[in-house]
């Protein structure tokens, strides 16, 4: 079945450093969604990418969708303590048996002062 | 607009018992998806309901079932509980399904003793 892997699993950074998490799918995706889950909270939608090679920015966050639509990345510039949490990608595959949204394994980000 | 609500928030059961969890989606959302979140397995898709019909199903045993009512509220049932069913169960609603942004509820923390 479809698998979505994320690396790294954990990342500790000093405040002000950059952070990147990578997402790789075993199959071609129709779209990819990114979510953030704060400690003790629930996943919150960040963004959706649909087109091959698409790049979207939200303030300090930059999201990319690969040309082959099998990988994606999230880059945070100059991390802040408010960025702490686990970042998940979720890949959508459209199939005749139903649309399947598979979440990645997540990258847990810790930011130290 | 009220968010997704889940009840109960916490639940303790013993092996062999059954449990029913409830999810009320955001008003106007017709799709409700259920996920199991554990530290070891991450976020795993259980099933999706749309307009009272199960539209998609993950790879979980038949002990896990669900339904959706005409008002879009959804319930999830787990029968013959096992220790490994201890997890955070999250429901997510969306306007049209997993193709769109998923709005997650706070989750139900189930502990099986």
Annotation keywords:
heterodimer; A: 113 residues; six-stranded mixed sheet; five-stranded antiparallel sheet; B: 113 residues; seven-stranded mixed sheet; four-stranded antiparallel sheet; 0% helix; globular
Q: Round the mean pLDDT of chain A to the nearest integer and report it.
A: 95
Which band does the percent of strand residues of chain B land in? over 45%
Distance between the termini of chain A: 41 Å
Q: Please provide the count of β strands of chain A.
A: 11
Number of strands of chain B: 11
What would the principal axes of the Cα set say about the shape of chain B? globular
Overall average residue pLDDT of chain B: 95
Instruction: Identify the quaternary structure here.
Output: heterodimer
Helical content of chain B stands at: under 10%
Low-confidence stretches of chain B: none
Question: Rg of chain B from C-alpha positions?
Answer: 13 Å
- Fraction of helical residues of chain A: under 10%
Count of DSSP-assigned helices of chain B: 0
The largest contact between protein chains, plus residue counts on each side, is: A-B, 24 and 24 residues
Run of helices and strands of chain A: EEEEEEEEEEE
- Termini separation of chain B comes to 37 Å
Q: Low-confidence parts of chain A, pLDDT < 50 over ≥5 residues?
A: none
Supply the number of helical segments of chain A. 0
Q: Would you write up a description of this structure?
A:
The complex is a heterodimer of chains A (113) and B (113). Chain A is mainly beta and 113 residues long. Chain A is 0% helix and 56% strand. In chain A, the strands form 2 sheets. In chain A, strands 2, 4, 5, 9, 10 and 11 form a 6-stranded mixed sheet that branches. The radius of gyration of chain A is 14 Å and the shape is globular. Chain A starts with a strand and ends with a strand. Chain B has 113 residues and is mostly beta strands. Chain B contains no helices and 11 strands. In chain B, strands 2, 4, 5, 6, 9, 10 and 11 form a 7-stranded mixed sheet that branches. A 4-stranded antiparallel sheet of chain B has the order 1-3-8-7, with no helix packed on it. The radius of gyration of chain B is 13 Å and the shape is globular.
